[in-house]
Design brief:
Elements (H helix, E strand, L loop, with lengths): L9 H11 L3 H9 L2 E5 L2 H4 L9 E4 L2 E6 L3 H7 L7 E5 H7 L6 E4 L7 E4 H23 L3 H10 L1 E5 L20 E2 L5 E5 L3 H8 L4 E5 H6 L7 E4 L7 E3 L1 H26 L38 E5 L4 H7 L3 E8 L8 H8 L14 E7 L15 E6 L5 E6 L4 E8 L4 E4 L1
Parallel strand pairs: 3-5, 9-11
Antiparallel strand pairs: 1-4, 2-3, 5-6, 7-10, 8-9, 11-12, 13-14, 13-15, 14-16, 15-17, 17-18, 18-19
Helix pairs in contact: 1-2, 5-6, 6-7, 10-11
Length: 419
């Protein structure tokens, strides 16, 4: 054990505090968000040779050696080079080379910890899953999929050092932090998580915003958006791409406004039960709690779209046949409640019409047809505006797990028939 060591940054301070409090959960949570330094040779640091995995043998087991600061490398490897590349736990988990290897973080220091491959993947799993849409879109070089992923993402902006204290994007004094590229064009660094920001910039003042907030207040369309720069999931988007996000938002608002106007003119010609009062709640036993993350492979593909509560009567009473929002794959019977659906689609947050404690929420659900774009049924939800297909079901998902059919759409008559 190295003696005389002191934390060199906020991450190490938090790790030490958690270790001294014997709070393993807090320790691992901090580690999951940390920037990790992998020692490399001077030649690799200069780009003259590949940067391999820094390994050492202990008790016949290969350990990958990583550290949380240059000072930690110097303390753990005295007299050796402190050249390094920066990674994150998520990248180590995705690229881990051998299930028999062990990850050694800050070996020899009071905050040292070892993780086997399964522990590493379990710890990184939430971040891996959250980042999957962005990673897949970048790998596939699919700008539409990337825009769709960003539409649902919470983003992190680094703030200009010594800038004004405001954190309001609409404030003219907001401390936007822009950087020039080789041609002198300004770019705005944007990150998909605090961990990604730490990986690129270390400890840095930041603010978390929704993609829609960023699109509405984008400072200059001549600026590029640099997504996760200096990380393996980096991309550059022109300012016009941000304008596309803004236009999608405008289209959604137009549809919602039209629905609101129709609600004011609703005729009330059919009688429907209030969804929150239909049937008797049937709580599910703990043994039947569903934990699957993906659609049930045993049921046919159905597409789904969530409706804000106040527009339900526009469909039922006025025959409204338009919809806009995140088209996504239905996960199957018993797999969703309002809260689970909101969290998966990223529908919670400031300005959202949905709340985690909602007793029920209405959804449109339909079978894909020949004219349905194939990508709608694959991968992540996509922001779309559409005409409701014939035979679409209007259903109500309840907090207690009930999935209730309210009405079915007859496109020829342009009306919803009560169930």
């Amino acid at each position: 054990m190295v003696t005389g060591w002191q934390p060199a940054n906020a991450t190490e301070q938090a790790l030490l505090a958690a270790a001294e409090a014997d709070d393993r959960q807090a320790f691992l949570s901090e580690l999951a968000a940390a920037a990790l330094l992998l020692p490399v040779s001077p030649a690799a640091a200069a780009g003259r040779e590949p940067a391999g995995w820094p390994t050492a043998q202990h008790d016949g087991v290969t350990h990958v050696m990583v550290y949380t600061s240059p000072a930690a490398i110097a303390a753990g490897l005295p007299g050796q080079s402190v050249s390094y590349r920066v990674s994150g736990l998520i990248d180590l988990a995705v690229d881990w080379p051998d299930d028999d290897w062990v990850l050694a973080v800050d070996a020899g220091l009071p905050i040292g910890v070892r993780l086997v491959a399964d522990e590493l993947r379990t710890l990184a799993a939430p971040a891996v899953e959250a980042e999957r849409p962005v990673r897949e879109a970048i790998v596939q070089q699919d700008p539409d999929a990337l825009m769709s992923a960003l539409l649902r993402a919470e983003l992190v902006l680094p703030l200009r050092p010594d800038g004004p204290a405001t954190r309001d994007l609409s404030d003219p004094e907001f401390p936007w932090w822009s950087v020039p590229d080789e041609q002198g064009r300004l770019s705005l660094p944007v990150f998909t998580s605090e961990a990604r920001l730490r990986q690129a910039l270390g400890d840095h003042d930041l603010v978390a915003v929704s993609s829609l907030q960023l699109a509405e207040h984008w400072p200059d369309l001549s600026w590029q958006l640099l997504l996760n720069p200096e990380t393996p999931v980096a991309a550059a988007l022109p300012g016009e791409a941000v304008l596309t996000l803004r236009e999608w938002l405008g289209e959604l608002r137009a549809v919602v406004t039209e629905a609101a106007e129709q609600e004011q003119r609703r005729r009330g010609t059919a009688a429907y039960a209030e969804p929150s009062t239909v049937g008797v709640p049937v709580p599910r036993p703990a043994s039947e709690t569903v934990t699957e993350d993906g659609p049930d492979p045993e049921v046919p593909l159905r597409l789904q779209l969530v409706i804000p509560h106040r527009y339900l009567t526009s469909y039922l009473d006025d025959g409204y046949d338009r919809a806009a929002g995140l088209v996504h794959a239905w996960h199957g019977p018993g797999r969703d409640t309002p809260a689970r659906l909101y969290r998966r689609l990223g529908l919670l947050g400031g300005g959202s019409p949905f709340e985690e404690l909602d007793e029920w929420v209405a959804v449109l659900r339909w079978a894909p047809g020949e004219a349905t774009p194939e990508e709608w049924g694959r991968g992540q939800p996509r922001m779309e505006s559409l005409v409701v297909p014939d035979d679409t079901e209007l259903r109500c998902l309840h907090q207690d797990g009930r999935d209730e059919l309210l009405a079915r759409f007859d496109a020829a008559a342009r009306r919803w028939s009560p169930a």
